[in-house]
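A protein record pairs a chain with a discrete description of its three-dimensional fold. The following entry can be read in just this way.
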Amino acid sequence: MRLSCCAYSYRKEIQAGEMTLLEFITLCREIGFEGAELTAYYFPTTERAYLNEVKRYCHKEGVLISGTAVGNNFAQADSAARQQHIEMTKNWIEHSVILGAPTLRVFAGYVRTGEDREAAFQNVVAGMQECAEYAWERGVTLALENHDGLTQTAPDLAAILSAVDRPGIAVNLDTGNFIGEIYGDIAAAAPSAVACHAKSMARGVEPNSKFDVDYRRVREILEGADYRGFIAVEYEEEEPAPSAVPAFFQVLKEAFGK
């Protein structure tokens, strides 16, 4: 397993104009990350020339593109809006091919108050089937993240994967997005994982409660599932990322024996 960092970890710096995507890639190399997950939100353009520049820059810096990530919602009831998100996801599959990214992190979506959960589930399945087929033909795997809503638990993830039933979709296992007794869900989801997000803390059962994730235990679970992919830091806590991410990198480096 190798360590990567999500551009999302430095969202405040990037959004404030204090850091460019290329500067983030350099920072990954300086900290010691072997990879970088490049989040769609932070690309100033997706013109081919810029995508080529990013790919070349990563190679120059010796940083692998561990994956890309898009913020889609296939659960929404409005068919036109849902189709826009399907097309956006397909576009990012194409961008991922150009960048050489093996995976594209995707979401299922969430059920709004008053909407039917089963109808939302079926919308997600249909959208994922279409995009998974498109991705598979182009050598990219959709990595479905456990991210509240329809993917709150490992059984939720498994239900979607089973219903989609396509080889072009697997799991982006986020260690901090399960709630409470997270290790059972992590163990259940790990065999289907092609990507992994590492958060420094997970959510407790009590409102607003958090606890440190035991990454030695996570490592044992992932090794038991034969997971050999990237562990990508997705930092979300209050301490500024410039100081917190390098410190968390050291925690993971020790836990994973890097």
